[in-house]
Amino acid sequence: AWKMYLERRSIVLTFLHTNLSCHLLRCHQKRIELLKKSSFYIEVLPKHLALGDQNHLMLPTTTFQLIDPWRFQQMKKVGTTQTKIQLLLLTDLLEQLERGREELVYYLETCDMVTFLSRWDLIKQRLSNLAELMGDFLATLVPGKLYIKHRLVPDVRATKVPNISLVLSTKMPVVFDRKESVAHKDWATLKWFSTSQRSQHEQYELSFRLLAHGTQERSHCGLLTVTSNMCEIQNLLPDRAYEFTVRRAETYSLVYEQWHDSITLKTETNPDQDMESSPCE
What are the residue boundaries of the Fibronectin type-III domain, all occurrences included (predicted)? Predict the structure, then answer.
């Protein structure tokens, strides 16, 4: 009985260390937090390509011209709903995995040999359930295909149109470089980055606003569209706090984006400078 107890206890310990370690669960938690800050898009791909294949040839522009705009907008709504469900489901699955780990640790730390062996069938079933849960969690981490209820290309236009499928893809959040973003007396340099592989040649929107100081200064704000990962903003007021926000410029395929990075910088004091604010252009 003692040997059986040690063997079965070892099975649980191995499962905890390999599938449900604290480090692994923390990594999954960070992954969910990152996804919640990410941007989700619809991609139109030939049906023969696997999800996530980045080496595909782009579909001809004529294909996009054939897609019914109203139906595409409807699919964007489906994509938004599917993304929200995915994020909620990931959070729920991770909570179940964390509770499962606590339950297994409880069995190991509180049960004596007789109690542990008497509950082995229950523990074994729990291990099986948690392994299945982990599989569901890992599968849900990857954005999936969208179910197309209606044809995106009306029959009247469907001459030589390739079979297409819609998939959800993600881009990692755009984040300010806190070390390189600095404010001077009347101007500021902002830099940002993204870990997405396809972040080159993207357009970004950089907005700024003066944090409440005086009623006559509330209109001191602006919005710039840039194609690089840095921007200089001139004609700021000295000795003032500004909030800067960066995001990707919105595209027709965006379906979900809830988070934008912001940073607050204070300009330097300059007693000799005219303190009147400059209106937005």
Answer: 174-272
Nearest to 79 by CA among 171, 173, 172, 168: 168
Give domain status of residue 281, yes or no.
no
Same domain, 192 and 137: no
- For the chain, report the end-to-end CA distance as a whole number of angstroms: 82
* Token pair recorded at residue 221: 């704000």
Is-contact 102 130, C-beta < 8 A?
A: no
Crossing angle (nearest 10°) for helices 69-110 and 2-18: 150
Nearest to 265 by CA among 205, 181, 191: 181
Range of 255's domain?
174-266
Taking CA atoms, 224 is separated from 31, 70, 183, in Å, by: 30, 30, 17
* Total domains, the chain: 2
Residue 274 in any domain: the answer is no
* Residue 276 resides in a domain: no
Nearest one of 142, 148, 135, 178 to 38, comparing CA atoms: 142
| Host H or E run for residue 171 | strand 164-171
Same domain, 158 and 114: yes
pLDDT tens digit string along 240-268?
Answer: 999 999 999 998 889 999 999 999 999 99
> CB pairs under 8 A, 24+ apart, for 197-202?
197/54, 198/54, 198/171, 199/171, 199/172, 199/174, 201/227, 202/227, 202/248, 202/249
